[in-house]
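ok so I'm stuck.
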Amino acid sequence: PHLFSFGYFYEHASYHGAVANQPVVVLREDGTMSQRITSLGTGQLAADTNNFAFFAADHWSPAPRFTLDYGVRFDHDGISSDTLNVAPRIGFVFAPTPDNKTAIRGGIGLFYDKIPLEIATSPAYPAETVTRFDASGQAILGVPLVFAHQVITPDGMHVPYSVAWNLQVDREIRSGLLLRFGYEQRRTYRDFFVQPFEGANPSEAALRLFNTGTQTYREFQWTVRWQLRERTTVFASYVRSRARGELNNFSQFFGDHPNPIFRPNEFGPLPFDAPNRFLLWGNFRLPWKLEFWPVLDIHDGFPFSRVDNDLNFVGARNEGGRYPTFASFDFQLIRTFEEKFLGKKRELRAGLKMFNAANHFNPREVQNNLGSPNFGGFYNGVGRQFRAKFEFKF
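replied:
not stuck anymore, here's the structure
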């Protein structure tokens, strides 16, 4: 039997505003000035887009233990020069044994993203003048460079897209105990990234936005699900992954909190790259209508770069070290109440949520300046936090 489905999507979005940046001064460890960055005037930003999409899909079971899901999606992004983007995809589930305790599933597809409105307005951002100083912090080195914002897309902007596929095997070892092994891979094309350009002539300086970047991500996953009894389930998962991509992502330099200090782009470990991750979570039904939802998250620290006193990268970016291993035990304890409201019984869920219950030090900042006496120090950890939770169902 076949089960066909169709759908469509339409969106109109507009962005209007202005941006003006305050001067930025970069100081060395000894207090001397390394750079001064000033913004030229105010940029008036305006962009509008009309996006639409429609799709068709089919769920088909050609055999009792084999199912196919396949379809195609058509997208149009009002900012891009592409008339129509076609994204086919297909997935399957196969039960190779008559007892239906083993399932092999997988799929592959093409997935298009959107072009953010910040991209369309980036040429209107005010140019930035970068003045560099010698070791004394007094004498100007060379000529101040004025970096205008340029979009380098000779044949117009194109929507970034990804090719992703996965393969997964599930096996029920015994009643309530399931083992899972899976692999996933994704490669992104036509990503946006920024590259500063100085050239032989100071007037050629520009902060260029390219539409040719790539990203890659792949992971192996091992998962165990153990269902002890009704509404009491425990999961354990280990993921081995690798994430690489353009490190001058456009969002660093455009938007609400732009980074005023730009350096040459590199391809390397992405900021969220964590090769090893272990998760343990579940839900436990307790007496007195209580529910306990714990989560233990342990993963490698994220990568960081090393810089010198002028904030130039030393060595490959995001390969200067890693933050300490992240570990956090979070949980929520919920109780369900039934109350009468407007003549009907309503369900109210109230409880307590706790983050980082063990108060483990998980820093968010690192002193990565080689010239600092505190080089290698980690700071700004988030300690134990509490939240109240209320849910009311009408």
